[in-house]
Amino acid sequence: MNTNRKWGAALLAVGMVAGLAACSSGSSGGNASSNKPLTILIGSSGAAETKAVQDASDAWAATNKTKVTVTAASDLTQQLGQGFSGGNPPDLFYMSWDQFQTYASKKYLEPYAANQTNKGAFYPALTKAFTYKSKFYCEPKDFSTLGLIINSDKWAAAGLTASDVPKDWASLETVAKKLTTGDTVGLAFGAEYARIGTFMNQAGGSLLSKDGKKVTADTAENIAGLTEVKKLATAGVLKFPSALDSGWSGEALGKGKAAMVIEGPWISGLKGDYPNLKYTVAELPAGPGGKSTFTFSNCWGIPAQSKTATETESLVKYLTSDAQQLKFSAAFGVIPSTESAAKTYATTYPNNAPFVKGNNYAVSPVAFAGAASVIADFNSQLEGIASGDPKAILSALQKNLQSALDTANGK
After folding, report:
1. DSSP-derived secondary structure for 292-318
2. Which of 71, 198, 251, 369 has the smallest set of CB atoms within 10 Å of its CB?
3. Rounded to the nearest 5 degrees, what angle is found at the Cα of 115, between the Cα atoms of 109 and 119?
4. Residue 148 and residue 144: Cα distance in Å, rounded?
5. Residue 1: inside a domain, yes or no?
6. Does residue 379 share a domain with residue 237?
7. Which residues have a Cβ under 8 Å from the Cβ of 321 and sit 6 or more positions away?
8. With left for phi above 0 and alpha for psi between -120 and 50, is residue 26 left, alpha or beta?
9. Is 188 helix (H, G, I), strand (E, B) or coil?
10. How far apart are CA 89 and CA 93, in angstroms?
């Protein structure tokens, strides 16, 4: 379970940047050329990813007369923070969606992406995720969306067919009820904004206004989204992983304790622990406001005023090329961030095509600087949604998140 839970838990880690030193790279030379060896810090899912990034970097380095060293962090959040606070950040690094706005607001990142020749190749949702104050900062390296993962054997045992795959909330309720038995619950997902927020979005809601200047948590649409989750929970067809003796919903699926879960393409990692598990992937059902899912990504971050920016920008262009991203897909399963490469990926790996389709309408979870602690409190409230009051929960979120947004905007 390398990447499976990190997207849910990542929101809790954003606040660590607040104590970083004001200097970003200890230099003021801008894009000066340098032949010094380059360092890359990544948060790796395992040996296959680390090797793939090193091999790709070596291929670029061979024609650019330099050397690149890739380091897989044991704790990327901590080690990246230490690098910046010590005035010696890596030349290139994974920057996740949940930390990006915090780093960008502190002016720790070089906004190179706006000037890259391939800037228009990426999914709009990914470009937006790494845009701060209308400036595209860093190029996305890949992405994951959420889908509905269905245990094929449980599905067949319930007498369900492909025509029964839920397309809306009503049909989701129907199949969840049919799939719920004495030892299996129909649906499971984490009791957190990074999962439950999709229902709010499907109802037509959001946590921020389109211009990002106002919190819109306590709307009728968001209340409808939480009310739907409460309805599923009180009906007994939805349970959270903790109630299924599982650390995350994928584990519950593997154990056979949940027939359907809401997770991302990292679900493929279950094959190692549950080799007999058979599953299919579908897009998330639409709500009254239409289709919606979350997209999660990392971008290739470069420190502000880096003396090696010329080299690292060239390296990023190589790493984000369609050919190289598809090599990464083959090596460790990620979905390419460019629309053209993702289309090829969907054809090559048809079982994961719903994840790719989802990115056409996906949005990134709210993660502006200072939002982490508020979202953490919101998550704790969501754990009791079965007996909770959606309106009261969102009213508290509205107040606290608006306060955090005002602080982030210097009000």
Report:
1. --BEE-EEEE-BTT-TTHHHHHHHHHH
2. 71
3. 100
4. 13
5. no
6. yes
7. 118
8. left
9. strand
10. 9
Distances 189 to 3, 233, 250, 322 between C-alpha atoms, Å: 15, 11, 8, 33
Q: What is the DSSP letter of 80?
A: H
Structure-token match 């349970």, residue found: 239
The Cα–Cα gap between 240 and 156 comes to: 23
Residue 301 sits in the same domain as residue 169: no
Q: What is the dihedral of CA 281, 324, 134, 211, to 10 degrees?
A: 0
Residue 212 is assigned to a structural domain of this protein: yes
**Residue whose C-alpha is closest to residue 293's, from 143, 176, 160:** 143
Query: Could you tell me the CATH number of the domain that includes residue 324?
Result: 3.40.190.10
Q: What is the pTM of this model?
A: 0.87
Provide the domain count of the chain. Answer: 2
CA-to-CA distance for 93 and 215, rounded, in angstroms? 31
Q: What is the DSSP letter of 364?
A: P
Inter-residue long-range contacts of 126-132, CB under 8 Å, 24+ positions, other chains counted = 126/295, 126/297, 126/337, 126/359, 128/364, 129/97, 129/100, 129/295, 129/297, 129/299, 129/364, 130/95, 130/97, 130/100, 130/297, 130/299, 132/100, 132/101, 132/104, 132/105
Domain that includes residue 235, residue range = 147-292+370-408
What is the distance between the alpha carbons of residues 352 and 357, in angstroms, rounded to a whole number?
9
Taking the C-alpha atoms of residue 334 and residue 249, their distance in angstroms, rounded to an integer, is: 20
β-partners of residue 301 are 93
Q: State whether 35 and 98 are in the same domain.
A: yes
Domain assignment present for residue 113? The answer is yes
Least confidently predicted of 15-19, 73-77, 244-248, 295-299 = 15-19
What does the pLDDT look like over 128-152, one tens digit per residue?
999 999 999 999 999 999 999 999 9
* Residue located via tokens 């982490």: 372
Residues 46 and 67 placed together within one structural domain of the fold: yes
Whether residue 229 is found in the same domain as residue 283: yes
pLDDT tens per residue across span 166-208:
999 999 999 999 999 999 999 999 999 999 999 999 999 999 9
Cα–Cα distance, 331 to 288 (Å, whole number): 39
